[in-house]
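Sample 1 of the test manifest.
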Amino acid sequence: MNRQHDFQGVGSARSRALGWMMQRITGVALVLFLGLHFWVQHMPTGFLATAEEYSEILRRLGETSPEFADAIAEGKIREALPGEHVITYEKVLERLRTPLWKLINIMLLLFSLVHGMLGVVNVLGDYIRHSFLRKAAVSCGWTAVLFLAAQGIASIMAVGMN
Amino acid sequence: MGAWLLHRLSGLFLVLYLVFHINGLRALSDPSEFEVYITVFRSPLFKIAEFMLLIVAAFHAFNGMRILIQDMGFRSDRQRVLFYGVLALTIIVVLAGGVPIIFPYFIAPLLP
Ligand code: HEM
């Protein structure tokens, strides 16, 4: 069915051109946002806790809450190795308290979801020949994107709210 | 052809990872759960996974930029050169960014 019209189910020529353009725009944006994200969360900078800072944070948390003390005693929360830099709630909170960082992270979330899904639509278009199946798969995908966007934004907004 | 397949596989891998990652962020609603969650990602095995994630992401990013440059009309007989450029930049970024990630776990213990 519809063997000749290979692109049916991935939208009109116009929406495909728009998708193609959006994939490129979001790709360029991701260089910036993903680069920043990597710098902040994976590199040894002041955005993470040093081993000494983390030790101090754990000592303080252990004193204030039995829940923390238990998790530390059970090894579910571990001290940092010498020279290790650790992502920790306190540092995340410090950053995400500012609206600009919240916005930056929401942009990263949305750009990566849209870029990834546009890519998946393209891949689905290449492998699913049946146009109805293709439409169904693409719809499921965008539904998942909406759900993940909502959940991700909720997680970002929740920081500092309790 | 090879570059195209690698770009597709790396992109799909990143999408899969993104889904897990967004799910994990729910731990942010509870500070002690977040510390536990992060501790899991600080095991040696996960540090290697983090290093591999960097390889995949860096390759996809630089190869994506190559595709953008070529779409903008860069001469096609330079394709191979551009792809070697992508590989070189990927290796540079993986070394510059990856070594600090694994250093406390795998390199520092080897030092006298
Ligand atoms: C870091 C910057 C990034 C850049 C510059 C970039 C660039 C690109 C470009 C230009 C394309 C289109 C390729 C084509 O049409 O031939 C593409 C495809 C794709 N990207 Fe990215 N990307 C980036 C990050 C990501 C991330 C974070 C994800 C995951 C969420 C992702 C997932 C995909 C997927 C699934 C495809 C489709 C592959 C295909 O059609 O074969 N990309 N990327």
